[in-house]
Amino acid sequence: xxxxxxxxxxxxxxxxxxxxxxxxxxxxxxxxxxxxxxxxxxxxxxxxxxxxxxxxxxxxxxxxxxxxxxxxxxxxxxxxxxxxxxxxxxxxxxxxxxxxxxxxxxxxxxxxxxxxxxxxxxxxxxxxxxxxxxxxxxxxxxxxxxxxxxxxxxxxxxxxxxxxxxxxxxxxxxxxxxxxxxxxxxxxxxxxxxxxxxxxxxxxxxxxxxxxxxxxxxxxxxxxxxx
Length: 227
Fold this sequence. Notes:
By secondary structure, this protein is α+β, with helices and mostly antiparallel strands.
């Protein structure tokens, strides 16, 4: 049975595809608890999450954590995070990535942030079950681009995709050192720059972001600016 929840109502209004006819929703009486390690590794994110209204719920048998904040105009913005069994993760993740998922899960939906953010237009972020290795369907495209431009290819077989944009752009980290890259075949971003020695529409780096923890903390800063 659904109960009145302002954040959930805002989620349903913005993410109209979330519920199907006959979907079952149940709310749980659980309190948010963040580990000391999480707060030490992700201090900006921890502060943001601690300011949120946290609601644990189940939708059609799937566990979620809904985090809601108020915008300056009184509307609600938020994340719907899916909580997963680590055994559902097909690949080994960075320790910091695992730490993130153990504490708050991965972002399945985000809504109503009025300023630009790393979460813009993302289909999902950080979900262990959705992660993949390498470039997948873009391998042939990347090989062709490097051949045409005379560049050497990067071995991205150990690069783990942890976010995927609706246009196909993939954000990934090198599992050997945690460095973060964007692979995009078509973009107009001004917060990235072409990786040295690579074709323009292939590997990018994020300005001011080096590793996975940097990426998470920058995302949290962006979501905290509308407080």
